[in-house]
Specification:
The chain is α+β, with helices and mostly antiparallel strands. The protein has six helices and seven strands, in the order E-E-H-E-E-E-H-E-H-H-E-H-H. Helix 2 packs across helix 5. It is globular, with a radius of gyration of 20 Å.
């Protein structure tokens, strides 16, 4: 019996680092505000297993740059102890310094932010928890986070780091009940994502999506949705090399936030 290495493709890809905000003011008026980053081209690898229904687009790029060269030399596989291997609950504490270094490269300094597991139940990928007494922030990595590939994980953490650094203050924390409920009209491209990755093999998936997933029962203030829109736009721009599944997921959630932002502008009252 003969075993062969899985097929592999290699390509050049972009990675952004040393990011900062450039601001130009004319008197008291801000006339320019844009995130500026240095850009480097790195040699990345993508190993595709013929049985893998969810290959990683662009391979795995190291926290400090490069990619594919930190592996075993023959196939470019990443050893579990390297800085660009998958983050697990078991190795999280050892990975925090590398994570914070990468976030600083992307202009999201979180040196004073704790990274750990959530307090209580968390059904999202990750979230920012704020201590009501001290105001100290914590990026909580939820159960779903540990099922993602490394580049997805870095992208998810960046999203939360962006919230920690750049969120605008909310005009209100009141969650307005909607009666009757508002139903999202989900475009076909996002339905295709949901059916392929979230509801594959589920009986009556469309019925559940239309009756439950599209149902919005509470509405938040417009600033809440704009903070999410800004975070997703920055995340997508600076973390392009993610899995197909996560790429489609964040595009879907971005569409939801944009839709609810527009709805909130018209209907939110507190």
């Amino acid at each position: 019996m003969k075993f062969e290495d899985p097929p592999q493709t290699r390509a050049w890809g972009k990675e952004y680092y040393d990011c900062h905000y450039g601001i130009i003011e004319w008197g008291d008026i801000e006339v320019f505000n844009e995130l500026l980053c240095k850009e480097r081209t790195v040699w990345i690898s993508e190993t595709i297993d013929s049985t893998d229904a969810n290959p990683i687009i662009g391979g795995e790029t190291g926290i400090g740059g490069g990619g594919g060269g930190d592996g075993d030399g023959e196939t470019g596989n990443v050893p579990s102890g390297s800085s660009n291997s998958k983050i697990t609950k078991e190795n999280l504490n050892q990975r925090i310094s590398d994570i914070k270094k990468r976030m600083k490269e992307l202009a999201c300094n979180i040196d004073d932010v704790e990274i750990g597991l959530p307090t209580g139940v968390c059904a999202s990928n990750a979230r920012v928890e704020v201590d009501e007494i001290t105001g100290k922030k914590k990026i909580a990595l939820c159960y779903k986070f540990f099922g993602f590939e490394y580049q997805d994980q870095i992208s998810i953490i960046y999203h939360e780091a962006y919230h920690c650094n750049y969120d605008e203050a909310l005009s209100s924390k009141y969650e307005m009940p909607l009666n009757p409920s508002y139903y999202l009209q989900i475009p076909q491209e996002h339905l295709d994502y949901l059916l392929k990755y979230e509801f594959d093999g589920i009986t009556n998936a469309m019925s559940f999506i239309n009756k439950e997933m599209a149902k919005i029962t509470v509405l938040r203030c417009p600033e809440y949705y704009m903070n999410e829109i800004n975070a997703y736009n920055a995340e997508i721009r600076l973390n392009p090399s993610v899995s197909e599944k996560y790429s489609l997921e964040r595009l879907f959630v971005l569409w939801v936030q944009q839709t609810l932002y527009n709805y909130s502008l018209k209907h939110y009252k507190f």
